[in-house]
Specification:
By secondary structure, this protein is of the alpha+beta class. Helix content is 16%, strand content 30%. The chain has a 5-stranded mixed sheet. α3 crosses α4. The N terminus is likely disordered.
Length: 482
């Protein structure tokens, strides 16, 4: 009886394990030389060729959910799934596996384009007898640091070291001359690669103005009387290390907050046409339609994207993939932005916020000074936008290209910018200070990124993702109510 019960328990566990298994994405890429989407096309509702996703997996009974045109075609070892231009998500379903939601932005694809073919390769979970392996990626700065994993040197390039390891616990050390080394451990899971980011801190050193003595900073102060003679009674100011660091930080953040206040651009009350206007020259996606009138109250918008320098002064950390004080902060979620704004407002007593989508687009178009350009400030993308064509696959310091008609920089390109709104569809009615739907699944972000084609930098181009998501091409810009 005991053996029968044990067998039943083991069988139940095996069945439960089977149903709890997960499919994973092995790779997802644009197949530039594959013309299937054009030679065997399907049309969307706008009579344009669909994008074709070739989903590679040797498994019968797979179904798909999302913005799909027609029934998927089951070929040998793959499924053909047709989707209209502008879609960025696909859910994959099978009775023996947990549902898999694929966000195309996670793999550098973004929204699919009309007439293009993409290859999405899926992987079934390993059997118990197979050796499970997974990738570990360590992003580190400075880029001259050395990386050891399990006491073995891992070669890195441009601040990224990658290695493939068995699933389980592994140790790492990141070290560099002149910096404090950092070590720790990471647990690799079979379901997804692991990425850790490490920024080494410089070792404490003395400079010409400061003498280190018994863990105290002694700052020599030379002051003069009104007749330019030295005051012999003046004593050195003695501060603890913590007091000195706090004073330096306080001075820095005061300067940054004053600069932020001076960089806010006043934007007047206006009515304008939002969405697929004629200067978009036929490139507008369906979610940019219909063009409609919007009435806004006056507000302020910062002429620059939030820099890493400002973020770190307020938050005490820098989550960005690309490092540099004057570079835009990125790799931040919508929720991270709300935390940043809350702390910023407590420091300033002001009410900074993210712009609404309608405010963002009006400012991008140039406000009352608008010249009705396709991009923010010009009809030539590269004049105003760091995008795929000119960015060298990285972000650039804010304010380096031509500003738009309001004197605002980088509203096209460099990094996408979070907006306050939930994502929703437009209608023809005049909207008064619109803020999007009350609830939805995704938050809006606008403007295009350094790694996107020029069309993503258009003033009316829309995008959205879940508010917890973060990408190395997504940051923010601050608004302020009058």
């Amino acid at each position: 009886m005991r053996n029968i019960l044990l067998s039943f328990v083991l069988l139940f566990a095996a069945i439960s394990s089977t149903f709890a298994q997960k499919l994973t994405v092995e790779s997802f890429k644009l197949a530039g030389s594959d013309l299937t989407a054009q030679t065997q096309p399907r049309k969307d509702l706008n009579d344009r060729n669909c994008a074709l996703i070739k989903v590679g997996i040797t498994l019968d009974g797979v179904t798909f959910d999302g913005s799909i045109v027609g029934e998927p075609i089951h070929k040998l070892g793959e499924y053909w799934v047709y989707m209209p231009k502008g879609v960025s998500m696909l859910q994959i379903l099978h009775k023996n596996y947990t549902p898999l939601m694929v966000n195309f932005y996670d793999y550098g694809i973004g929204k699919v384009e009309s007439g293009e073919t993409y290859v999405l390769t899926l992987k079934k979970p390993n059997t118990i007898t197979e050796r499970q392996i997974q990738k570990l990626r360590i992003k580190y700065s400075p880029t001259t640091a050395s990386v050891l994993v399990d006491n073995k040197f891992v070669k890195g390039t441009n601040g990224i070291a990658e290695t493939t390891l068995t699933v389980g616990q592994h140790s790492y050390i990141v070290a560099c001359d002149g910096y404090e080394s950092e070590e720790g451990s990471v647990k690799l899971k079979a379901s997804a690669p692991s990425t850790i980011q490490i920024a080494l801190l410089k070792e404490s050193t003395a400079n010409n103005d400061i003498v280190v003595n018994n863990n105290q900073y002694i700052e020599n102060v030379n002051e003069f009387t009104n007749n330019n003679t030295q005051n012999d009674d003046q004593q050195p100011i003695i501060m603890s290390e913590t007091e000195y660091e706090n004073q330096t930080a306080d001075n820095n953040i005061e300067n940054l907050l004053e600069k932020l206040n001076n960089d806010m651009v006043y934007i007047e009350t206006v009515e304008y046409t939002m969405g697929a206007t004629k200067e978009q020259k036929g490139e507008a996606d369906s979610d940019e339609k219909p063009a409609h009138e919007v009435v806004l109250g006056c507000f302020y918008l910062c002429k620059y994207e939030v820099t890493q320098e400002l973020w770190e002064a307020v938050m005490g950390n820098n989550p960005s993939y690309f490092k540099g004080e004057k570079l835009p902060v990125e790799n931040v979620s919508w929720y991270d932005c709300q935390d940043f704004i809350m702390k910023l407002n407590s420091l300033t007593g002001k009410k900074y916020r993210l712009p609404t989508e309608a405010e963002w687009e009006y400012a991008a178009r140039g406000g009352v000074n608008s010249m009705h350009n396709k991009y923010s400030g010009d009809n030539v993308c590269e004049y105003v936008s760091w995008c795929f064509q000119n960015s060298k696959d990285k972000t650039e310091a804010v304010g380096m290209l031509k500003p738009n008609e309001l004197g605002i920089y980088d509203m096209s390109g460099n990094v996408w910018e979070w907006c306050q709104d939930w994502y929703g569809l437009y209608n023809k009615k005049t909207a008064y200070n619109p803020t999007g739907p009350a609830n939805a699944f995704n938050k809006v972000f606008r403007g295009g990124g350094y790694d996107n084609p020029a069309t993503y930098s258009r003033c009316s181009y829309r995008n959205a993702t879940a508010p917890q998501n973060k990408f190395k091409n997504l940051g923010l810009r601050l608004a302020l109510s009058k």
